[in-house]
Design brief:
- The complex is a heterodimer.
- By secondary structure, chain A is of the alpha/beta class.
- Chain A has one domain: Rossmann fold (3-Layer(aba) Sandwich), CATH 3.40.50.
- Chain A is 22% helix and 25% strand.
- In chain A, the strands form two sheets. In chain A, strands 2-1-3-4-11-10-9-6-7 form a nine-stranded mixed sheet, with helices on both faces. A two-stranded antiparallel sheet of chain A has the order 5-8.
- In chain A, a hairpin with a 5-residue loop joins strand 10 and strand 11.
- The longest helix of chain A is centred in the last third of the chain and has 13 residues.
- In chain A, 59% of the residues are buried.
- Chain B is α+β, with helices and mostly antiparallel strands.
- Chain B has 25 helices and 28 strands.
- In chain B, strand 1 and strand 2 form a beta hairpin.
- The chains are: A alpha/beta, B alpha+beta.
- The interface between A and B is medium-sized, with 31 and 35 residues.
Chain lengths: 232, 721
């Protein structure tokens, strides 16, 4: 089983994702954004960074990269698609996920570990986790503030597609625990026909070893790999 | 009457005559432009060069020393580390965001020019006090600029330091240090070889931005009209740089590059002449081939432009097509602009005409050097004799409250949380600790780095101040488990034409050199920034040291400040004096006193302290260097970050705030045998409770301490975070 990691010019987390998935036993290949065919891959990750410089709205250019047609095809076929940080932004721009990511509430870039609570296990990112589990995972973004209209948010909630919410260390979802102003403290959502497309703002690949401060991201990446294993 | 061209370009009449002598004729405009930039203080080190030989630069592990694009040291197992430090002071004062951003971009190019992938950055910053709005603007602009460029270019910023003094209000200091990793067989040279090889300009288009940056901005003092110099500040494009890094690393991977040089100060003039001169060759450059942003640029403007994100690669003719294909893949421009020749001349052609023909080496090798006069400042004796008068009794809790609220001592989270400091999954000990620790993938090695400066002490006694920062930096890397391996230094000074400034400079070099010799650490690179003077006022003499240390193997769980737990014992290792208050945080913050003469270092004691710290890092969960604020502040930091109080035996307040060098705290299981027999060691107390208790001398609630320490910077810059 092979996992593709999409590489756009300006992407910078591709090696970290490759390393973290490799640590969990996956066979990972970094694929250049102009190289088209993802047929042989069981799943794809869009890693963090600044695809095409992000001088326009984040992800606004990346959505037109040739590889995005393939990402959409995998999404449609039900194979797991994971967008981390800038990857989440690109998936929103590409209409593979609802909503958008705008500048953080305090208009500062934020790089620090945050706590998130698992809201559902019915997603390719959390199937091996437990509802209510609190994970400590680094956030690293300027445009990390998730927004959507009320109807979209209600629909996400109703369908159980809010995957993670920012919380305090004890799991309480409060405004103080919301680092960037995201609507309803949302840190990760699922979408796609089969709920197999996931966008997450914090970086699970930065939390896979205790020596780096946390291994809480493992359960998320393991879930993703398990879903890829079983994908059609 | 208009001034002659050479003066408008910042050259003296003597320097102009020197050019005429070298060429045997009057220079053309484009030639004069090249000499003016290459012979500027910034590029030629003409005031500092005669003295820099004092620094020790050799050790068996040094691969490239000073004068190269970056220092390179061998850390074993086939790995090399490239390191460099640079200032971007003047541009950051004129335009803080872009000044700081392009400082980051420039130093990264120095690192990947030698073949290394840049993996980490540090920033040493100095501003005026934050209660002035303009200083807040400069401070937050610089931090945003570093974040904006560093985060987007994909190189993590692992730490740094910051100080605030009046003397930096009109001349902030922005020093950036970068580190890169490479395999030993991948070292790339800048020496152009092989007549007929092709010079390819890679990266951004050349525009009018930054023209004269080196000569006009970096090599002259400032006054009220300096805002007009804004057009001399370059604009950074981190996306272009990111693509350039990846493209160059791919070119190296494929073995397609004979030599390469980045374009920084003095642009094409500098890169072409240095490549040619380093290889003992010449070069013909066709300016018409340069990709211009504006078509009507003059030859001098094209040659002097400091447009960012450009590299000059020397390539064998048969490899040119493959090089162009790699550039095309990464979506960067690549133009054949020159050919390597054997005649040692740099020849420049523009629209069919020869606009310059000069000996390539003359731009660097024949640059003037000045042994400028030196004089000890007349008022220094009086300043040194006027040391702080210490009160008999001090409420330690109250003094600590004041110190924790000082922005230089307080939490720097507001700064470093704006920087990506985790990319590449190497950050084992991150910002907010004494030194950062970076693991080297696939090995058991760890690279520790600390940047240190102490502007006030260096003003009070440049020699002692400089020696102290070297020892402090060494101890900062040692508490992560590392042995000091190499130093880069950034020497920020005022106007070298003032004898007092030159005296400070030479004294500083003596202090740095002696301390590096004591610790056995070579200086592998550096930067001199003179003319940090505005309206006739010079900055404090401010050397900044970037210390690289190596742990091999790295401790399994390297010490961090947040690992103290209730019941652990607290020890102080190192000599206590109780009288080292000149230039201390206590004198400055509590007594509002900034005079006196700091104590000197003790080389033997310093060496022992470093050695014990590096050993104990494998045994203790917390080690912390005692520096600004002394034992009390060091302990408060540990307690705040660990979320637990401490009970300390104390009968003399002076021992809590004294800043004698070569001391560190150990927090560990009470049964731990420190095995320190050649340094004073004292059990200070025990971790526990929710207060910082100093016997009968006072105490402070931990939650209050934490709030003050965390809020000191955000509340001053008006941030909600």
């Amino acid at each position: 089983m092979r996992i593709a990691v999409a590489l756009f010019p300006g992407t910078n987390c591709e090696h970290d994702v490759e390393y973290a998935l490799g640590l969990l036993g996956a066979d990972v290949e970094i694929v250049w954004h102009r190289e088209g065919d993802l047929s042989d891959f069981a799943g794809v990750v869009l890693p963090g960074g600044f695809a095409h410089g992000d001088y326009l709205r984040t992800g606004a250019i990346a959505r037109f990269s040739p590889i995005m047609d393939e990402v959409a095809r995998l999404a449609k076929e039900g194979r797991p698609v994971l967008g981390i940080c800038n990857g989440f932004q690109i998936l929103c721009e590409a209409d593979l996920l609802p909503g958008a990511l705008i500048a953080n509430r305090d208009l500062d870039f934020i790089c620090k570990p945050v706590h998130v609570r698992v809201e559902t296990t019915d997603s390719v990112l959390t199937r091996r986790a437990e509802v209510g589990m609190v994970l400590r995972i680094p956030l690293n973004s300027y445009e990390g503030n998730f927004v959507a209209d009320e109807a979209t948010l209600d629909a996400l909630e109703a369908r159980g597609r809010v995957v993670l919410r920012y919380c305090d260390p004890d799991g309480n979802v409060t405004d103080e625990a919301n680092p960037n102003g995201s609507a309803r403290n949302i840190a990760a959502i699922a979408g796609g026909v089969h709920g197999n497309v996931v966008g997450i703002m914090p970086h699970p690949e930065r939390a896979v070893e205790e020596i780096l401060g946390s291994a809480d991201g493992r359960v998320l990446l393991e879930s993703f790999l398990e879903a890829a294993e079983e994908a059609p | 009457m208009t001034e002659p061209l050479h003066r408008r370009l910042g050259m003296t009449d003597d320097e102009y005559r020197r050019v005429v002598e070298l060429l045997g004729r009057e220079p053309e405009a484009a030639e004069l432009a090249m000499y003016s930039v290459m012979w500027s203080e910034h590029c030629s080190y003409k005031s500092s060069r005669p003295w820099l030989g004092r620094l020790p630069t050799e050790a068996p592990w040094v691969v490239l020393g000073p004068g190269e694009n970056a220092g390179v040291v061998d850390i074993g197992d086939g790995w090399l580390v490239a390191l460099r430090i640079e200032s971007h002071n003047h541009p950051s004062f004129v335009e803080p965001y872009q000044g700081a951003a392009t400082g980051v971009g420039g130093i990264l190019r120095d690192i990947f020019t030698v073949g290394a992938r840049p993996v980490a950055l540090w920033d040493a910053l100095r501003f005026g006090p934050l209660d002035e709005p303009r200083n807040r603007y400069l401070f937050s602009g610089v931090v945003r600029g570093i974040a904006g460029y560093g985060n987007a270019v994909g190189v993590p910023t692992l730490g740094g330091e910051v100080e605030f003094h009046d003397r930096f209000s009109k001349n902030p200091l922005v020093n950036v240090m970068a580190l890169g990793l490479l395999q030993r067989d991948r070292l790339v040279t800048r020496a152009a070889a092989g007549a007929g090889n092709v010079a390819i300009l890679l990266g951004a288009a050349t525009g009018r931005d930054g023209i004269g940056g080196a000569s006009i901005l970096a090599s002259a003092s400032f006054d009220e009209a300096s805002a007009e110099k804004r057009p001399s500040v370059q604009i950074g494009d981190p996306f272009e740089e990111k693509k350039l890094i990846e493209a160059c690393l791919e070119l190296y991977d494929r073995g397609l590059v004979v030599a390469i040089q980045d374009l920084g100060a003095a642009g094409i003039s500098c890169a072409a002449s240095e490549c040619a001169a380093a290889g003992g060759m010449g070069m013909v450059v066709e300016l018409d081939a340069v990709h211009l942003r504006e078509p009507d640029m003059t030859p001098a403007e094209v040659l002097m432009s400091e447009s960012q994100e450009r590299m000059l690669a020397i390539v064998a003719p048969e490899d040119v097509d493959e090089v162009l294909a790699v550039a095309d893949k990464w979506e960067i421009d690549a133009r054949r602009i020159g050919v390597v020749t054997t005649d040692r001349d740099l020849v420049v052609r523009h629209r069919g005409e020869e606009v310059a023909r000069i000996p390539a080496a003359s731009l660097s090798e024949d640059a003037p050097a000045y042994r400028r006069p030196r004089r000890r400042p007349a008022d220094l004796d009086e300043i040194q004799d006027d040391g702080p008068v210490l009160p008999d009794a001090v409420d330690v809790g109250e003094a600590l409250r004041l110190l924790l609220d000082d922005p230089a001592l307080a939490s720097k989270a507001w700064i470093y949380e704006q920087y990506d400091h985790m990319l590449y999954l190497g950050t084992v000990v991150g910002p907010g600790n004494d030194g950062s620790l970076l693991r080297v993938e696939g090995t058991r090695k760890g690279l520790a780095v600390s940047t240190d400066g102490d502007a006030l002490r260096c003003f009070l006694d440049p020699r002692r101040g400089a020696a102290r920062i070297v020892h402090e930096a060494a101890l900062n890397v040692a508490v992560t488990g590392a042995r000091p391996l190499a130093v880069v230094d950034n020497l920020n000074f005022g106007n070298p034409e003032k004898p007092e400034v030159m005296w400070q400079f030479v004294e500083t070099l003596e202090g740095l050199a002696a301390a590096c010799e004591e610790l056995g650490v070579p200086v592998v690179g550096g930067n001199v920034s003179f003319y940090n003077e505005t309206d006739g006022v010079d900055i404090y003499p401010t050397p900044v040291v970037g210390m690289l240390g190596l742990c091999d193997p790295m401790p399994e769980l390297p010490p961090r400040l947040d690992r103290a737990r209730p019941g652990m014992a607290i020890w102080l290792v190192g000599p206590e004096r109780g009288d080292d208050f000149a230039g201390s945080a206590f004198a400055r913050v509590v007594l509002d006193h900034r005079r006196g003469r700091p104590r000197d270092v003790d080389g033997d004691v310093g060496r022992r302290a470093v050695s014990h710290a590096a050993r104990l890092a494998h045994l203790a969960p917390v080690l912390h260097d005692c520096s600004a604020g002394g034992v009390a502040v060091a302990l408060a930091e540990i307690c705040i970050l660990s979320g637990v109080g401490a009970d300390v035996v104390a009968d003399d307040w002076r021992l809590l705030f004294d800043e004698a060098p070569h001391r560190f705290l150990v927090v560990a299981d009470p049964d731990l045998d420190l095995e320190v027999d050649d340094l004073p060691t004292r059990r200070l107390g025990t971790v526990g409770g929710d207060r910082l208790v100093f016997g009968d001398l006072g105490s402070l609630d931990l939650a209050e301490a934490a709030t003050r320490w965390r809020a000191a910077i955000p509340r001053r810059v008006g941030s909600a975070r």
